[in-house]
Amino acid sequence: MELLFPLLLVALLVPMFLGVRRQKREAEKVSTMQESLKIGDSVTTTSGLYGTVIDLDDETIDLEIAEDVVTTWLRAAVRDVRTAETTDETGADEAISAKSGTDESGADDGDEIPAVEESATQTETRLTKD
Q1: What is the rounded CA–CA span in Å between residue 53 and residue 17?
Q2: Coil, helix or strand for 58?
Q3: Hey, which bits of 14-59 come out as E strands?
Q4: Average pLDDT over residues 32-61
Q5: No. of H helices and E strands in the chain?
Q6: pTM for the whole thing?
Q7: d(Cα 64, Cα 57) in Å, to the nearest integer?
């Protein structure tokens, strides 16, 4: 009975200690990612907004969320940097809609054209087509 209390304390404190260590590691990783942002990175904010970094400050970043639409955000609001894999996943969704004929670009030949590679003139043509 004397050994039960210390054993119970150890059984409860060890998982709590390991959880705190994991949280610290994750917070450090996010902090490092936010400090290493550079112009041209595609990012996602904590509110789910996709944008491209066009200007940096010590505490803020300017994101272009559409052509000629720039918003200012705190660096802490950046959740992650989107890589080519992440943009490929969204390109796959666009390819599915293109095959079903619901794509606004009118591409019904089945060629997969990711939105990242669309030039400004192509965007202007697509938007003024109607």
Answers
A1: 37
A2: coil
A3: 42-45, 50-56
A4: 91
A5: 3, 5
A6: 0.52
A7: 15
